[in-house]
Amino acid sequence: MPEGPSILLMKENLLPFVGNTVTEASSNAKFDKEPLIGQALHEVRTFGKQTYLVFDNMAVRIHLLMFGSYSIDEQTKPDKSLRLSLHFETRSMYFYTCSVKSVDLEFLSSIDWEADIMSDDWNTEKAKKKLKSKPEMMVCDALMDQDIFSGVGNIIKNEVLFRIGVQPESLIGKLPAKKLKELIAEARNYSFDFLEWKREFVLKKHWQVHTRKICPKCGGKLVKKQTGLGKRRSFYCEKDQKLY
Predict the structure, then answer these.
(1) Matching PROSITE patterns, A to Z (predicted)?
(2) Each residue of 101-120: pLDDT tens digit?
(3) Considering the entire predicted model, what is its pTM?
């Protein structure tokens, strides 16, 4: 599943469409695409793993899910995985194997933009308050909770926990205050590192534990285990990461 940094890169690629008007729209997603014809794209907004294309009087939410993708200005052939194509005066955008929904503009005001880990509106204190309200939650679940850390995915989760030396099945309520602070800070720090490495096409070279077998610190064997309520893959070192 594309994580927040990858969605920001998609936003950057879509920004040149802002100010242009839709001339044609096709979709096998279940929403009425006809109202989009003749509307101008005013803004591209991201919230974690979601992208909002904001038009004159509606918005389209794109969620790439596990295997979604997009392309720009390609010459396409009919494809069952094509969920939405939008054609503007001179350019086109295409979205595949994803969730596409139309939302009212009012809906955008209901989103807690301060929960987006990569947003300028990110609110550290609000994240801390949400975490403290869930002392029995495992840290692996907390990092993947999109209401707390919108945009964090499994790669970021594993790498952040290795950075701060915490095992994924540790409980939020058991973390020392210093570790809780590190958890919040590194979730944001690593997300921006991820973004820069992704730009340079070197992301995987910087993975310390995600999909790895040997700990880069002690040389011991890493644990690979499905953890938390979501049963997502965790990679961690029992020696260099403490269970709280």
Answers:
(1) FPG_CAT
(2) 999 999 999 999 999 999 99
(3) 0.90
